[in-house]
Amino acid sequence: LSESGIPQLVQLMIWDYAADIEVEGKVQLVEKYRRCGFKVWFASAFKGATGANQSLPLIGHHLRNQLEWLQVASRSPADVLEGIALTGWQRYDHFSVLCELLPVAIPSLAVCLQALKNGGYSEKIKENVEELLGMSNLKIDTFMR
Fold it and tell me: What total of structural domains would you count in the chain?
């Protein structure tokens, strides 16, 4: 692959929306791509990745996904990682119904963005998100109304 010149033309994206993404396996994958000369992006999700008919996002699931990717990033060489694409899927395919519409997913988006921006999540970040959104009780591990 290195000799083909493809790594200079293509950047790879590693997608995984799980709350437990097997950090060590992802670190090894990044290293394998680095040895070939590729630049790598990660893809996480703040909504739309936990069920085709999901109505509300489970913020805790998506937050854990971001935190796992941050672990992978911290254990990967800085010269190979280009960034993270925070996705928000609207449907599983073009024949599926819409899931987790953006208005109900804004708290999840805010939590995930703040976790990525700050390199982690804490009570202070939770309070910051609550203040930004004008909410008094942000729920992470249960479905919010």
Answer: 1
Question: DSSP of 96-114, one letter per residue?
Answer: SPP-S-HHHHHHHHHHHHH
CB 74 within 8 A of CB 30: no
Count CB neighbours of 129 within 10 A. Answer: 23
3-class secondary structure, 87: strand
The pLDDT tens digits for 7-30 are 999 999 999 999 999 999 999 999
Q: Is 123 within the bounds of a domain? A: yes
Q: What is the pLDDT of residues 20-57, one digit of tens each?
A: 999 999 999 999 999 999 999 999 999 998 888 888 99
> Two tokens at 78?
């800085």
pTM to 2 decimals?
A: 0.92
Question: Is 141 within the bounds of a domain?
Answer: no
Q: 107: domain range?
A: 2-133
* Residue 15, beta-bridge partner list: 43
